[in-house]
Amino acid sequence: MAGIGNAIIIGGGIGGPAAAMALQRAGIEATVYEAYDGPATGVGGALSIAPNGRQALAAIGADAAVAAVGRPMRAMVMQSWTGKRLAEFAAPARLPEQLLIWRPELYRALHAEAVRRGIRIEHGKRLVAVEHAPHGARATFADGSTAAGDVLIGADGIRSAVRSAIDPGAPSPRYTGLLGFGARCTGDGLAPTGPKMHMVFGKRAFFGYQIEPDEAGWFANLPHPTPMRAAEAQRVPAEEWLRRIAELFRDDRTPAVDMVRRTRPEDLVITGGLEDIPRVPVWHKASVVLLGDAAHATSPSSGQGASLAIESAVQLARCLRDLPVAEAFAEYERLRRARVERIIAMAARTNADKAAGPIARVLRDALMPIAMKAFGDPKKFAWQFDHPIDFAAPVVPGDRTTPSGRG
């Protein structure tokens, strides 16, 4: 143990509870402070927990709790808008199955597991200031209360207040050119896909769907020339968005229009503009460090946002367990930066294909079958998914042989 007794975690989404559980396993007490007045159980659409995310969850004994609320997603099938099957690919069979999970259910599972382990989560704590103390950090919240710890971890998302506190010049989120939507609907009468997610590069927009006998789910990424925050997009009635989405997919030879028309307006998840941050220059300062989207925000197109946050939580806990704070933060960044930025860049290339204009779409559709033949080789993307973390292994700064993951 490097002498860290307690930590305060700002942000109670995915990374916050995961970090608290990882720190507890490392012998470090942590309290999570969440800005929402109550549990954010109705926020967000579908996402995936990739095999590497499940490996990270297993490292802190939390995989079973998450797997219980997820559905298997054993492969991804890429299609063109004409219905042509371009490729099918899956993670190596030796790895845990990928899961399709709705964010509110993931949120509830992680929070319930953290509380079961005796971790304190306080709500209604909106951060307004961070102070560097001689031997730690102090957070001040909008209600006038404060919290102090040996370290402060900013797991407060893509618009992180902690990131701005340690680096006022930190980059802002970048709009990807896409708006995000999703919903669950009935699958009655639709051809089932089984545990396979179908991804369609549509004629005008991108559509993903998975259909099982008891439930179907879909998401859509719509090109849009200007940024649109979630609150702005949500001011447009859901009925109107459903009409627009169905119209965009009217020429596609997929179940998109049928699934959109089956969707109740109250079930539509309106995400607004999809965003990323290619590179956050400063991850830590003194006793404060960033985690998850606060440090490495990838767009949803990566399918890796939640998994990367959980990986980072596990690696940060290992580093704080074994090293003094300054060395721990530096080693944590060394272990994580190259990997997460590679995934962010890969997702940005996917976004460019999804948001292609009329001329670019013609080129994309002509070249995609060739590209998919190469992409369909599991060796091309296995590095993302095959990333085991040996929680018990000691962390040695700069040691390339440390068994802390591949890729």
TrEMBL record:
InterPro entries membership: FAD-bd, FAD-dep_Monooxygenase_BioMet, FAD/NAD-bd_sf
Gene3D superfamilies from the UniProt entry: FAD/NAD(P)-binding domain (3.50.50.60)
TM annotation in the entry: none
Keyword annotations of the record: Monooxygenase, Oxidoreductase
Domain of life: Bacteria
Domain FAD-binding as annotated: residue spans: 7-167, 283-344
Protein name as catalogued: FAD-dependent oxidoreductase
Organism: Dactylosporangium vinaceum
Lineage: Bacteria, Bacillati, Actinomycetota, Actinomycetes, Micromonosporales
